[in-house]
Amino acid sequence: MEFVYLAEDEKSKVLEKHLSSILSSVGAAALSRVKEAPSGMPTLVTDFGSVYMDLASGIDVDAERTRLSKELEGLGKIISSIENKLSNASFTEKAPAQVVEGARRQLADNLAKQQETEEALNALKN
């Protein structure tokens, strides 16, 4: 089974440094970096970037669609919760600045994950 990933340079360096451990952990033959997100491949969105698996490797596409849909549902709940917190004047005025900024970063990170997960789900609909 082979995988490709899309990641920022800094995160790619970490993945490359630990490549042999990653390959042996997941039982993969290869993990290669790509410059653009491939279409039609199931995706796992991580803090290190997005990892794509070639559909030719025989995965259950319906199960992957279900998994991604559940992941989107969970991300939607998290995003809604953070948005509610940030729209609460009592929170933003009384909480320490670093706590409010942390919530904003968390919102941005989860919105990015949501977009990547939606793209992955859409790729499986082709």
Biggest sheet features: 4 strands, mixed
Give the proportion of residues in helices: 55-70%
CATH homology superfamily name of the largest domain: Valyl-tRNA synthetase, C-terminal domain
What are the secondary-structure elements, in order, as H or E? EHHEEEHHH
Please identify the top-level CATH class of the largest domain: Mainly Alpha
Provide the gyration radius in Å.
17 Å
- Judged by helices, strands and strand pairing, the structural class is alpha+beta
Low-confidence spans: pLDDT under 50, at least 5 residues?
A: none
Q: Note the gap between the termini.
A: 21 Å
For the largest beta sheet, what order do the strands appear in spatially? 2-1-4-3
Tally of domains: 2
Average pLDDT figure: 88
